[in-house]
Write a structure and sequence with these properties.
heterodimer; A: 269 residues; B: 432 residues; alpha/beta; Coagulation Factor XIII, Chain A, domain 1; six-stranded mixed β-sheet; 10 helices; 18 strands; globular
Chain lengths: 269, 432
């Protein structure tokens, strides 16, 4: 009975503490976002425009490559360039968050080793800036490619994706702290995962023998969901259920690992 | 554990200990967290400690380097977590440990105030309410919209101190320095901490300056090797700690002690001197020249031996009359300062000291704000040896040091008799 109560409490904490941290510490999160913007844009001519310009220019580059150079606008139907661009933005956001998470503890160590800093804010800090950057870029891209309705729908895509990414952020933050090789290997793993995710191709373009990857790779579910949502299609409930189950399954152990790390992290850094 | 006898309890430590873990490989730490299987070597920085602190208490922490003082302060400040025991703190804690550590160089002073206050848990409204007081105290209003990277180190320290003491803390944690900066700000920061004391805030004060610890604290905790060696009334604990330092010094420096060890009266003073010397090397105010700051300063010191003024004197033990005259410049906005005098042995030990506050002498300053005081040492009682005189100009309470004038005179004492030690005590022989 005690074990069950403890488990229930742990589950409740795992859901509430990291998700409510940005609300509870909103003044701190706001100042830390300002701090990050100052770090990234100080001394530049375009200043605060740069965080937004970077993904936007990347997308323009992809569009130029695939739509103009390869002339793939009409390959397998008129929507390939749209599909690729609207898949690529969430993926860029997802991979940027995870790569940053591996160095999260080291990045904020000057704050939490010298002042009474709430560590539960750290996962938020990995998520909030990409959310602020990629959400408007995705909305503008959806507006450009699909129109106003899709643009309005696009507002929720990045925030939902990032909330789902939270357990992976916790995992990467701890793994990146203790196993330096993890941070080095992750970009390669993410590149590999990108090729296994239907971003640069439609899902049905994958050879039949490899379709199992679509089922095993949760990012494939995300791509299905995003395109169904933006294009007004039927939401694949199986994908929703699978993503939700995986999120719940990962969140508790990842949060527990993160909390257990707290005792060590102030000594280590 | 000693119960404080004060009213409301604000800090409660029950068996609180801190161990640092050492791992052969980084991954062992991750594996230990995952599996629960111990893979570390352990070093105990602080043995389980129980302590109850009431609201308004001023607790001093003394101990040698590595005794666990900083670990204890970091546990209280929340930058470390205890490895064992229960630590409860009721109230907002502000720590003067690493001033300006949370500042970001690219952000303006204004934004850094909001960032630091947010880390302390203040809302934007609370920060906005305190902002003007912070800026006024720091005295750098015109720089607040500029990036902190353009500030001098003194300005950073002033702003950080202003924030730490204006977030309305219930508990103030001070590591070593009772004042920061120099000149006017040093005095203001010292006064600010004294205001906290008078306002009944709880203060945890860790210092090598045993004089200040004894003068300010209600209770003193002596840590040694991570354990509580003694706890209780300042006079009792400081005396015991001084004796301990003297014994340590005797072990480390046997030849020196062989030459002078007969003077048991100086045992505590010697230990204090070493601790004060260590404090002088870390505290910012002690040896800092005051220059043109608007704080009281020493204008001239004259040392006369048997009417002759010089810097190096030949002194006859038990006969010479020594006069030390100190002329100082006061400041209209501040109370008239006090003066202290210290006689050090050739090896740097404090042999004797005297101060106007301790002796109940109130100094006066004239219309031109200058004042003078002279102390006379008739029939100089120290035995043969080389001694040095130092003069201190202190605040009216005799706690905050405005200026320290080193080696104002060197006394080469000669004696006729064969007495041993360093001082002749008043005595009478009676043949029975």
């Amino acid at each position: 009975m005690t074990f069950l109560l403890r488990l229930l409490r742990l589950c409740a904490d795992s859901l509430s503490i990291p998700l409510l941290a940005p609300v509870k510490h909103r003044a701190l999160v706001r100042m830390l976002v300002q701090r990050e913007i100052a770090s990234r844009t100080s001394g530049t001519a375009l200043g605060r425009l740069w965080p937004l310009l970077q993904p936007a220019l990347q997308i323009l580059g992809f569009w130029f490559l695939f739509a103009v150079v390869y002339d793939m606008r009409n390959v397998r139907g008129p929507g390939f360039a749209q599909y690729m661009l609207l898949s690529m933005l969430p993926w860029l956001c997802f991979s940027e968050v995870l790569v940053r998470a591996t160095g999260l503890f080291r990045e904020f160590s000057p704050l939490f080793t010298r002042s009474r800093f709430p560590l539960e804010v750290l996962p938020t800090m990995a998520l909030v800036m990409p959310m602020l950057v990629y959400t408007p870029v995705l909305v503008l891209t959806a507006m450009w490619l699909l129109g106003l309705v899709a643009a309005l729908k696009a507002v929720v895509v990045i925030p939902l994706l990032l909330v789902w990414t939270l357990p992976l952020v916790l995992l990467c933050a701890v793994a990146g702290l203790f196993v330096r090789d993890f941070g080095q290997a992750l970009p390669f793993v993410l590149t590999l995962l990108m090729y296994l995710t239907p971003i640069l191709y439609f899902p049905d373009m994958l050879p039949a023998g490899m379709r199992i990857w679509l089922w095993l790779n949760p990012m494939s579910d995300w791509m299905l969901l995003i395109h169904a949502w933006l294009n007004g299609g039927v939401l694949p409930l199986e994908s929703v259920a699978r993503l939700l189950a995986l999120w719940l399954l990962l969140l508790v152990p990842c949060w527990l690992w993160f909390r257990r790390t707290e005792l060590h992290v102030r000594e280590l850094l | 554990m000693v119960d404080s006898g004060f009213g409301n309890k604000v800090i409660s430590l029950i068996g609180v200990g801190k161990s640092y873990r050492s791992y052969t490989r980084d991954i062992d730490r991750a594996l230990e967290i995952l599996t629960g299987k111990v893979r570390h070597y352990q070093y105990d920085a602080l043995q389980p400690l129980s302590l109850q602190v009431a609201k308004g208490e001023v607790i001093g922490v003394v101990g040698k380097n590595g005794a666990g003082k900083s670990t204890l302060l970091k546990l209280l400040a929340g930058t470390l977590q205890p490895s064992s025991g229960q630590l409860e703190i009721n109230g907002r804690v502000s720590a003067i440990l690493e001033l300006g550590a949370s500042f970001h160089p690219e952000m303006t002073g204004h934004d850094n105030v909001y960032l630091t206050c947010a880390i302390q848990g203040l809302s934007r409204q609370e920060t906005a309410a305190a902002y003007e007081a912070i800026v006024n105290f720091a005295g750098i209003g015109e720089f607040m919209q500029r990036p902190v990277k353009t500030y001098s180190s003194g300005m950073v320290m002033r702003l950080a101190f202003a924030i730490a003491t204006h977030v309305d803390p219930d508990i103030l944690i001070i590591d070593e320095a009772l004042s920061v900066g120099d000149g006017v700000f040093a005095r203001r920061s010292f006064d600010r901490i004294m205001e906290f004391r008078q306002a009944g805030k709880t203060i945890f004060f860790c210092s090598h300056s045993l004089y200040q610890v004894e003068a300010l604290c209600d209770r003193v905790l002596w840590l040694d090797g991570g354990r509580v060696r003694a706890e209780g009334a300042p006079a009792k604990v400081i005396t015991a700690y001084g004796d301990f330092l003297q014994q340590e010094s005797a072990i480390v420096q046997p030849p020196l002690v062989t030459a002078t060890a007969t003077a048991t009266a100086t045992a505590t003073a010697t230990a204090t001197a070493e601790a004060e010397a260590e404090a002088a090397s870390t505290a910012t105010t002690v040896a800092t020249p005051v220059a043109a700051q608007a704080v009281p300063r020493v204008m001239a010191v004259k040392v006369r031996v048997d009417g002759t003024e010089a810097r190096v004197h030949a002194v006859q033990s038990g006969k010479s009359r020594i006069e030390v005259e100190v002329r100082f410049l006061s400041v209209a906005a501040l109370p008239v300062p006090s003066v202290g005098l210290v006689i050090l042995g050739g090896d740097g030990r404090y042999v004797a000291s005297m101060g106007t506050v301790n002796d109940g002498i109130a100094l006066r300053a004239g219309a031109d704000l200058t004042g003078s005081v002279m102390v006379t040492l008739p029939d100089f009682p120290l035995l043969k040896g080389c001694y040095v005189i130092e003069v201190y100009l202190l605040c009216e309470q005799g706690l905050h040091i405005y200026e320290r004038v080193r080696q104002v005179a060197e006394l080469n004492v000669e004696q006729r008799g064969l007495e041993l030690g360093i001082v002749t005590l008043p005595h009478q022989w009676q043949v029975l």
